[in-house]
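Lab notebook, page 48
Experiment: co-folding of the full assembly
Goal: obtain a model of how the components sit together before planning crosslinking
Operator: M.T.
Materials (sequences as entered):
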Amino acid sequence: MIGQEVLPTPALVFEPVLPELVLVAFAIAGLLYEALAKRSEPILHLSIGLSGVLLAAATTLPLWSWDGAATVLGGTVSADRFAVLARLLLLVVAALGLLLAYQYFARSGDERKGEFTPLLLFATSGMTLIVAAADLIVTFLALEILSLSLYVLTGLTGRRAANEASMKYFLLGAFSSAFFLYGVAMAYGATGTTKIGAMALALTGSGGTQSLALLGFALLAVGFGFKVSAAPFHMWTPDVYQGAPTPVTAYMSAATKIAAFAALIRVLDVAFQALAWDWAPVVWGLAAVSIVLGSILAIAQTNVKRMLAYSSIAHAGFILTGLTAAGAVGIRSAVFYLVAYAAMTVGAFGTVMLVSGRGEERTRIADYAGLARTSPLSAALMTLFLLSLAGIPPTAGFIAKVNVFSAAIGAGYWGLVLLGVVMSVAAAFFYLRVIVVMYMQEPEEVSASSMAPDGEVLVGRGAGAVLVVPAAATLVLGVFPGVIVAVIEKASVLRW
Amino acid sequence: VNKLLTLTTFLPLLGALMVLAGGRGLKDEAARWVALGASLVTFIVSLIVLGRFDPSASEPFQMVEQAHWVQSIGLTYTVGVDGVSIWMLLLTTFLFPVSILASWTVTKDVRRFMAAMLVLETAVIGTFVALDLLLFFLFFEALLVPMYLLIGGWGGQRRIYAAIKFFLFTMAGSAFLLLGILFLYSKGGAVSFRYDALLGVAGGLPATTGRWLFLAFFVAFAVKVPLVPLHTWLPDAHTEAPTAGSVLLAALLLKVGTYGLIRFNLVFFPEASKYFATFVGVIAVIGIIYGAVNALIQTDIKRLVAYSSVSHLGFVVLGLFAFTQQGVTGGVLQMVNHGLATGALFLLVGMVYERTHTRDLGEMGGLAAGMPWLMGAFLFTVFASAGLPGLNGFVGEFLVIIGTFAVSNWFGALAATAVVLAAIYLLWSYQRMAFGRVREEHRLLPDVNLREVVILAPVLALLLVFGVAPKLLTDRIDPAAEAVIARVAPDPQHTTDVGSPVRNSILALPAGEP
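Observation: model returned without errors.
Model output:
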């Protein structure tokens, strides 16, 4: 039967996935270079990575004014502005991660690993795909791409702590992937589809399969809870954040949150929008537990990276607080929070890297004693990021908190907000403690290895320059949040 | 066109940036002069503000500036002054140059110290002029950071403990404030944080909701004032802070609390204010007596002055919650007077400490013999603080007491005892310091130097001027106090409705953009 199609093949429109294609192409190029070159040059790896990220950004930008179908490739990838904004954020974070890692390996004395840049690009391609995924199967695929890359990145230096972190991350991650996949299966059972848009339509109409859909949602929530490190699925976070090389931690703490929350937003506000009354209490509970556990456990930490890990759990709770408000209001507040959080967490871990000098030295809070004297610039940067994490004006963290709190109050969850503001005070304590140590204690004996000849703690000029970006973002978003709010406004409508 | 208030608010910040931008190239001496210069220019600008302020104008808020800031959430930059905030503004701009001059002896990290002082000045001025609740909250929170750094970086032995305690107490209180503001904001349709907009929202709330919101605002300001039992941060913070920090804490930061009570609690929630008036009155009286008794038993002179603040501020709150013209005007007057008198006391304590290196009253004595001028100034200030007629403390106290008697004899009588107690602890401590046998090592202490004369002279002069001519202050305070009374207690019987449109319009901002 020539001339008659046996299988209907969807029209292939590739523009909306060009960023991913670019990233993967550059990642493969990086791998080939590493394999074929006699002696690979780190600076060339960096240029390959940065060009990939830049080109991906360049192919993302035109999508802002995309006027084609809402979803492409057979309804599996959406082409809305939400995806564009999330992608751009991820690409900025990836670029910062690459630059920080370059500095890190230049100073740590670890054996250079040529796989680093390609792996980071692969992880980024998974993240940029997941924010656009309109089909839960694609979501799962993207989740695996980013997760597997991150497991390897975590253990890349081969340090004992890094290996342990990597193993833990992998085991728990695999476990959560299983939950996620099981959730997809349940959702399919309830709605007969894995496409996010079609699920929304099916759930609006049907009544009988709602319980199955809710079960599916619960399992998906476990999977997402793991990825965004919301309590009680946060167990891996402190170990991994502490054990991973600092630039990797900086990258993944920001990027994974953006990616996973973006995907979660699609699931909540599109696929399960008809069940908003049912999922809101779940989100409420995850938010409350995350805020409380994250804030309280952080108080007891003596290692800065571990403390920031617990703080990231609390921040996941704050973002979830915003998401208790269904629809555009919640999305807006969560996206703003993600932007602000990305800036402050990359900045904070980047500063930790600065202070470390080389490798994973000097990451105890006690090592920060008298930093204001030995390295005023790093102390000032750290203070800025910590104040923002604590939500003190005029920083991005303050506006972000006001946004999520007012979204939640608007949705009627003022109890959660009360909990949030009270725990913010507890959280302020451990952020302040670092500031106290930096400004109000005398420096200890600084090990000779990290001292520059002039007696100042070695501050990589390059790494310092990279941190200008998150520092500026933290301040500008705090004082003139209007610059991005208009963009977020336009991007907070999901098309399906 | 008319950006005087913005100029006043951000001039110090500009100075701070200049000090910081100088980097290590900027000599300590230069940093001091830049800071002093910036704060003096600010003071001059604020005098122009005072000159332009028209006490007889019909609209309550003058020199209002409005601009959109974050349009999407309805955050505006709205500032303006009324008869209450104008004096808080002046008190701030006056005391900062004085405190900076008093910090000439700071030698550790001078640039950072001066920058923190100037940032603090911007934040304090901002809280007093902000007419947008989120903007107010922003400044209210922002002033914590420089103050925290001042206490923790340049304080005494237990400075870190004191700094963290100060920060956490205030932040815990302000958490409820934020919750209250966001609640009002969402009740108003989440469109504006502006003072007049939320005032309208608050007027339309059911009584129970209003009471809860009153408490949310009240906790935040009660920590700041501070009212017993939320005061425990104060003795530590005041005692450990460097001299300038203690002066500014006592003179200005505590006033942010009472100012908040006037600006928000009384006006936004008149029904709840009356509902809780007795409760507030009781804890105010407890604070008055508790502070005074604690001051009596202190041997650390700085701690003594700190506890006297608890007592004096209880007085202010009692006056405010009497809802009478005299009570409210007297309360505001006391805010200014306490700022000047207690500020001066901390300055003097600092000067004595720099000479004797002790704050323990038991280790002092006979100081008047060697330093007649310094101890003379001290005595003058003690009299002012104790409310001697002819000096500034008297008028405010007197007004508060008659304002309170008009409502309740009990509260009036108890408040009056505080005046007696104040005289006892202040004069007794002065006696232990100035008279008696002089210790050997204190025999040759230098008397006031020129810099200290320049610091003390204007403050002491004002103590006298406002004592003799309180009308200078009350002329501007009275209309504002009347507006508050009109809102809370439109007539002595407390019966008419409080949300009538006429009353609202008295407090409304001028119409226009935004």
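Interpretation: Chain B has 22 helices and two strands.
Next step: discuss with group before ordering constructs.
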